[in-house]
Amino acid sequence: MSCPILVVGYGNTLRQDDGFGWWVAERLIEEPVEGVQVIACHQLTPDLAEPLSQCRVAVFVDAREGEPVGELDWETVAATPSANASFTHSAGPAELCLIAQAVYGSAPAQAYLLTVKSVHFEHQERLSPEVEKAVERATAMIRRFVLRTAGGASQPSLPLEGDRLLDYHNA
Amino acid sequence: MAQTLTIDPITRIEGHAKITIQLDEQGIVRDARIHITQFRGFEKLCEGRRFSEMPALTARICGICPVSHLIASGKACDALLAVRIPETAEKLRRIFNLAQLVQSHALSFFHLSSPDFLLGMDADPAVRNIVGVIQANPQMARDGIRLRQIGQQMIEWLAGKRIHPSWIVPGGVAQPLSAEKREQMLASIPEGIDITQRAIAWFKKTMNQFSEEIQTFANFPSLFLGLVTETGALEHYDGVLRVVDSAGNVIADKIDPNDYEHYIGEAVEPWTYLKFPYYKPIGYPEGVYRVGPLARLNLIDRCGTPRADEAWAEFRALERGAVLSSFYYHYARLIEILYGLERIQQLLNEPDILDTRVQAVAGPNRSEGIGVAEAPRGTLIHHYRIDKDGLITWANLIIATGHNNLAMNRGILQAAKHFVKGDQIQEGMLNRVEAVIRCFDPCLSCSTHAVGQMPLHIQLLSPTGEVLDEVRR
């Protein structure tokens, strides 16, 4: 196992808040956290299955349509394919975990999706003010998560409810 | 009652498109068309920008083949500077272009088309997907991922990132290659060659199950066009244009790419955003030609690397003249991957490949520049004009997918006539019509950008074909 925790931040930085995941990943790359591998990319592609197969915990970071703008959500990713899963150049977190398991015989024991809500997806490289603030909060949340997961616990403690409440107050 | 079948959107291609199949009163296919419904407008967007921005700007046309645009744009900018770039820079650009070809062809073959080969054209769409591929042949799924990774990794090692790298600059490349990266690239090549040879062996056996598709997937006489070296070998970066006919005869050779306008015209139709390039000496719409891997392997006298030459000789033995069935685009892609990896290996072993002189610096010395290269999907042409301040006043981009537009339309009509019967519409039939398009591996996001001159024609038709409403602009 090359790295116990993998963070994959993805999105299109040319479409305003869609680039949220990418910016979060870049922030984590700039200030690395021990034991964490970070990948910033524009979309999820099947070749990510290999690094996924080598980690114990995966955190995907993305943006989604919704309000209030800037609110963060954590959810568990189940390694089950969507009904219309196709072998194209892009895939979702669940499909990628499934590919990792089927092709490499190993998938993250736990996978999570951290998303920010937004309605701003225009042609622009700058994030909306709310989502720009959310980048900081998301980065901090991932750092807290990593600290609580450190030590090789088989079931990483996930104070997600608390984090979400805290985050909601800060939003 | 006449009927129109619509496949919308077409799956497993880059971009979005729609096919309509027009049936007659007896339910027999009368016509079929591919409609490219997205619109980009890059040629117009670039006007007024500094020419030196063009590589980075035009690379944004596509997230799959930005390298191809970087190469063609870089060459057009070299022409504006009127410089000959350093030899090492040219070699590095060649490696870059071939790495892109490896990853793009791997994507097309393993990721987009393998569900059809592994699970069959008639397979239930519910299983003709990633899960089905993995269950049917996990080794192939692993190979596809790894081969694409090898190409992508090479791009990243050279340019710093995989998508939209800004490493190609007018006059050369921004950074030389380090010894460490060279060794990493060389180390990955043997595995890539093994994977490709395994895939070629598998495909040669498997394609026998697709004799009906081989017969009917855009299998017709046409011209083939692309770059070759001065001595007729496979070429993706530079060289001269060659045109062969369906019998394999060379009908035009050693064409200076700067003279492309004498040989290639562009027509437009009101029902699609994708232009229709045609071979000017024959005219429109009869001047149908094909580009891309199938065309390139039909044009050449040899590949120029040992394993690829061996594979190419077998490929050309499929037919006495040119290989005409577009189903063989898939086969040609694998041979080109093999060539790409072998050629990259050769280039990395050149003694001057680590030279640090990789950029010629100059200001604009010409008002017009043309850059032509072979993208994975075929010949890519960037043509710019600038004013005295170096600002773009006019740009024309002819994209590989556009060259194949006439052939794609003719191909889906051929397949539709064979597979689609009005009284028994089945998923497998429609999938075969779609699969014809996938043979060409069209990149529609790249090829739809002729803003300002593209006619838009919307007709509202009754079931009997009566025009109920009509809008033109």
Short description:
Chain A has 171 residues and is an alpha/beta fold. Chain A has helices at 20-30, 49-53, 93-104, 129-149, 160-170, and strands at residues 5-10, 36-41, 57-65, 72-76, 110-118. Chain A has a 5-stranded mixed beta sheet with strand order 2-1-3-5-4.
Task: Write up this protein.
Chain A is of the alpha/beta class and 171 residues long. In chain A, 35% of the residues lie in helices and 20% in strands. A five-stranded mixed sheet of chain A has the order 2-1-3-5-4. In chain A, helix 1 (20-30) crosses helix 4. The longest helix of chain A has 21 residues, at 129-149. The termini of chain A are far apart. The relative contact order of chain A is 0.22. The model of chain A is unreliable at 83-89, 153-157 and 159-171 (pLDDT under 50). By secondary structure, chain B is an alpha+beta fold. Helices cover 42% and strands 18% of the residues of chain B. Chain B is built from 16 helices and 16 strands. Chain B has helices spanning 42-45, 54-59, 66-81, 87-119, 130-136, 138-159, 179-206, 211-216, 260-263, 293-299, 306-316, 329-348, 400-403, 405-419, 427-440, 444-447, and strands spanning 3-7, 17-23, 29-36, 168-169, 172-173, 223-228, 240-244, 250-255, 264-267, 276-279, 289-290, 368-375, 378-386, 392-398, 457-461, 467-472. In chain B, the strands form six sheets. Chain B has a four-stranded mixed sheet. In chain B, strands 1-2-3 form a three-stranded antiparallel sheet, covered by helices on one side. In chain B, helix 14 packs antiparallel against helix 15 (427-440). The chains are: A alpha/beta (171), B alpha+beta (473). The A-B interface holds A 14, 41-43, 45-47, 49-50, 81, 83-89, 91, 95, 98-99, 102-104 and B 11-12, 14, 60, 63-64, 107, 111-112, 114-115, 126, 129-131, 133-135, 138, 141-142, 144-146, 148-149, 152, 162-163.
